[in-house]
Write a structure and sequence with these properties.
Elements (H helix, E strand, L loop, with lengths): L5 E4 L3 E5 L5 E6 L2 E4 L4 E4 L3 H18 L6 E4 L4 E5 L2 E2 L2 E8 L2 H7 L6 E11 L8 E2 L1 H6 L5 H24 L2 E13 L2 E5 L7 E5 L9 H4 L5 H12 L2
Antiparallel strand pairs: 1-2, 2-3, 3-7, 4-5, 6-7, 8-12, 9-10, 9-12, 10-11, 12-13, 12-14
Helix pairs in contact: 1-6
The structure holds thymidine-5'-phosphate.
Length: 234
């Protein structure tokens, strides 16, 4: 697959055109940021690990009937993906309280939530990705009512699939962030699924195996990412 022009560079990934107008190469970087890039660093081989974990997660979801942008793995840091128009929402699902949920609502980390929480942030770095609700999304025409329903239903299904998959690996899915895109008139899952975008705790010990180790300087960041990779690909 010919690698063409760079069309987008984000905090953790780069997208390149290919000779097929419907397909892009998604390249995973080692760069890590937190708190809207107030904290910056690199995590050695994160790009390799996140490409492999995302590949596994997209393949799993596709096998369960969830449409994703994933086409195939190309190299250690690259996957071929469908070219979508990203819906500018960060779609977050939470099974236990952590991160901004604890800060916003004054609850203790790890509190079991009576039902999974679905929340949306408006994907806009300049505004610091503000939390928004359904009526904001419709009023600002970020997604149609039908698209929003699809996004919610897919997120609920994805939560069940990944939670069950992780549970078998002695990992607990605390929360995660998804992004969706429009492709040929349909909503499909895009972006990545990795320890950058999920909170993952080891069952029993509660050991954090995700980007919180980087966010809060907990140490052993690379080891945590490698640990998730080794379990997920076992
Ligand atoms: P939060 O508790 O900081 O709002 O994060 C919720 C989940 O979303 C957590 O698994 C980390 C993930 N996340 C991202 O993937 N990108 C982001 O920019 C943020 C803020 C969170």
């Amino acid at each position: 697959m010919h690698k063409g022009n760079k069309i987008y560079e984000g905090k953790a990934k780069i997208l390149y055109e290919t000779d097929n107008k419907d397909l892009l190469i998604q390249y995973f970087k080692d760069d890590a940021t937190a708190f809207n890039a107030a904290k910056k660093g690199t995590i050695h081989d994160k790009g390799v690990v996140n490409n492999k974990i995302s590949t596994k997660m997209f393949a799993l979801l596709e096998s369960k009937g969830i449409p994703t942008h994933f086409v195939e793995n190309l190299s250690e840091r690259e996957m071929l993906v469908k070219r979508v128009a990203i819906v500018p929402l960060e779609v977050i699902t939470r099974n236990k309280a952590a991160g901004s949920f604890c800060r916003n609502y004054g609850v203790q980390e790890g509190r079991v939530l009576a039902v999974p929480v679905q929340e949306f942030s408006y994907k806009c770095d300049a505004l610091n990705d503000p939390l928004i609700n359904d009526s904001h999304i419709l009023a600002l025409e970020l997604a149609t009512k039908e698209e929003l329903e699809t996004i919610k239903n897919m997120s609920t299904k994805i939560n069940g699939i990944i939670r069950d998959f992780f549970a078998k690996l002695n990992l607990e899915l605390i929360d995660f962030k998804l992004e969706f895109g429009r492709y040929k008139g349909k909503i499909i899952l895009a972006d990545e699924i990795s320890p950058d975008t999920c909170r993952i705790w080891e069952v029993g010990t509660g050991r954090k195996l995700d980007k919180d180790r980087f966010r809060h300087d907990l140490g052993n960041v690379e080891e945590a990412y490698q640990e998730v990779l080794s379990r997920v690909t076992k």
